Each structure stands twice: as structure tokens, then as C-alpha cells.
Amino acid sequence: MARIDVQCRYCNSELVYKHGYARSGEPRYRCRNGQRSFQMAYRYEGNTAGIPEKIVEMAMNGSGVRDTSRVLGVSITTVIAHLKKIKARQGQPATDSSGHGV
Ligand SMILES: [Zn+2]
């Protein structure tokens, strides 16, 4: 059986098995420890290049979640998820380049 050079994204275990394919066509993997399945690359619309920036831009311009979703062609859930992520980031103290607090 071919070795899979994949680490579990939850526990970094290398005891990972192929576990079919996601609807997007990405292979899915399953970790032996946690029995959790995951993909190496999550390919969902909101991660398309430029979309997060556009979501922010539209929010700054006062666009509602619905408008943003319609204009950018992403789901409302995606818009909300990005806005939450941005808020969380803004609420954190400044960090240096290593990612640790200054
Ligand atoms: Zn794991």
C-alpha cells in the first residue's frame, strides 16, 4: 500500500488513511487516532483569492451581508464567517512576526 504523505490536521499523526473523495473532488483522509476525516485542501468558495478582501471592503462601505453575498457570489454563511474572523483578529493584541505577543 502506498504511503500517504499526509499528516492529520488535528493531531499531526501520520496514521492517516484515504477516505474517499469530497464533493469538490479533493481526496479525503481519515486519522486513526481521532477517527476524524479531513481534507488537505479545503476548497470552498470563500477562500478564493480576493474574496475575503472584497467582503471586508463591502462591509466598510456599508453593504449588508445579503448584498455582499449576492454581489460576490458566495453564501451568506461564508460572508458572516469571514466577518467574524476579522473581528476576532482585530480584538487580539499586537503580535510580532513570530506570532507571539509582544
Ligand atoms: Zn488525528
From TrEMBL:
The UniProt record lists the keyword Iron-sulfur: no
Any one of the GO BP annotations: DNA transposition
InterPro entries xref list: InsA_HTH_dom (IPR024431), InsA_N_dom_Znf (IPR003220), IS1_transposase_InsA (IPR051252)
Record keyword Repeat present: no
Keywords: DNA recombination, Transposition
A UniProt-annotated Pfam family: HTH_Tnp_IS1
Segments forming domain Insertion element IS1 protein InsA helix-turn-helix: 42-85
Sequence ranges assigned to domain InsA N-terminal zinc ribbon in this UniProt record: 1-33
Stretches that traverse the bilayer: none
Function comment: Absolutely required for transposition of IS1.
Family membership noted in the UniProt record: Belongs to the IS1 elements InsA family.
The name this protein goes by in its record: InsA N-terminal domain-containing protein
Lineage of the species this protein comes from: Bacteria, Pseudomonadati, Pseudomonadota, Gammaproteobacteria, Thiotrichales
